[in-house]
Specification:
This protein starts with a helix and ends in a 24-residue tail after the last helix. The protein has twelve helices and ten strands. It has helices at 3-17, 31-40, 47-57, 74-77, 87-94, 125-134, 156-174, 194-215, 241-255, 272-282, 299-309, 314-331, and strands at 23-27, 67-72, 97-101, 106-108, 117-119, 139-146, 179-186, 223-224, 262-265, 292-297. Helix 8 packs parallel to helix 9 (241-255). The protein has 355 residues and is of the alpha/beta class. It is globular, with a radius of gyration of 19 Å. The protein has an eight-stranded parallel β-barrel, surrounded by seven helices. A two-stranded antiparallel ribbon has the order 4-5. Bound molecules: 1,3-dihydroxyacetonephosphate (13P). 1,3-dihydroxyacetonephosphate binds at residues 26, 143, 183, 266-268, 297-300, 355. Residues 26, 143, 183, 266-268, 297-300, 355 line the site of 1,3-dihydroxyacetonephosphate.
Length: 355
């Protein structure tokens, strides 16, 4: 189907995902990554346990008040809850739009620095996206990763290749009716300061929108999922929360077109509390463009929830999830009071993180 066939629907879906006071729950960890999470609470990585965990998340009463969409891993999109309903139905019942991670992972980028990668999954993507649409997905995610090093990364090659991949992906899934979440993540690894992150991020995001232009991506039917503009995790010069908020908004204002309806940040290894506090401060700054500035957190929404669930305590798990969902919903409107909801201060940063 041509993109023009879906244009109105794409705009409507993107607007619904970017509505004020709501954000996105990222639950698209690969089977290997969710295995590490389950291991941390002593639960075995079986299909049944993944179904139990994600089924608990997707039956949390009231979740749709704070969450507009949930990103799933392919297994979950085609999976049923233990009660026989599909996971897609569970989400729709809550008023949460189902989405799907469509990339097939990072691969070494030949000709570039050792740590540099490109994101794979373009082959047959239009057709795969059409199957996901039939299954009930209405948006997609593709995560490209860039890293800042002291010896010159990200290279021009990596910036160009990753921007191009994101734009090819965005155009491909739009042709099958899915709103692309465009995710150029800059890892927190490194000892660089916040100014360096801002300079790199500006170059990367501008390149992404240049590639979107060449590929004819309908910007009104997309969302951007960037990392926040933070210093490297090992930087000697830490930034305070207000500085992070100001630098992040400055970076976005310099590169993100006003036609993009929403910017949904990833948490990238920030603690639950820091992710909420930074987002809240960003939403207190008067902005030049009207994008909805919100969240698409994985770790920062699930960390306490997983610990509380412990493999079987549905009530405690759901309570923890709602607490972080509500906190971040408030932060997306600039009305979060730090510490007003249970949260963890534990930094969730892992060097060389793979999702
Ligand atoms: P984190 O919020 O844990 O960084 O995950 C979000 C995500 O979807 C990364 O691709």
């Amino acid at each position: 189907m041509a993109l023009s066939y879906y244009a109105e629907e794409l705009k409507k879906t993107a607007k619904a995902l970017a509505q004020s006071g709501k954000g996105i729950l990222a639950v698209d960890e690969s089977t290997k990554t969710v295995g590490k999470r389950l291991a941390s609470i002593g639960v075995e990585n079986t299909e049944g346990n993944r179904q139990a965990y994600r089924g608990m998340l997707f039956t949390t009463k009231g979740l749709g008040e704070f969450i507009s969409g949930a990103i799933l891993f392919e297994e979950t999109l085609f999976q049923s809850h233990a009660d026989g309903d599909s996971m897609v139905k569970k989400l729709n019942d809550l008023g949460v739009i189902p989405g799907i991670k469509v990339d097939t992972g990072l691969r070494p980028l030949s000709g570039a620095h050792d740590v540099e990668t490109f994101c794979s999954g373009l082959d047959g993507l239009v057709e795969r996206a059409a199957d996901y649409y039939t299954q009930g997905a209405r948006f997609a995610k593709w995560r490209a990763v860039l890293q800042i090093t002291e010896d010159g990364c990200p290279s021009k090659l990596s910036i160009r290749e990753n921007a191009w991949g994101l734009a090819r992906y965005a155009r491909s899934v739009q042709e099958s009716g899915l709103v692309p979440i465009i995710e150029p993540e800059i890892l927190m690894d490194g000892s660089h300061g916040i100014e360096k992150t801002a300079a790199v991020q500006e170059e990367v995001i501008k390149e992404v929108y240049m590639a979107c232009q060449i590929n004819g991506v309908l910007l009104e039917g997309t969302l951007l999922k960037p990392s926040m503009t933070v210093p490297g995790a090992e930087a000697s010069n830490k930034a305070d929360p207000q500085q992070v908020a100001e630098m992040t908004i400055r970076t976005m204002e310099r590169c993100v077109p006003a036609s993009v309806p929403g910017i949904v940040f990833l948490s990238g290894g920030l603690s639950e509390e820091a992710a909420s506090v930074y987002l809240n401060l960003m939403n207190k700054i008067e902005r030049k463009a009207k994008w909805n500035v919100s969240f698409s957190y994985g770790r920062a929404l699930q960390h306490s929830c997983l610990k509380q669930w412990k493999g079987s305590d549905t009530d405690a798990g759901q309570k923890a999830l709602i607490a972080r969902a509500q906190a971040n919903s408030e932060a997306s409107k600039g009305s979060y009071v730090a510490g007003s909801q249970p949260s963890s201060d534990e930094a969730l940063f892992v060097a060389g993180y793979t999702y």
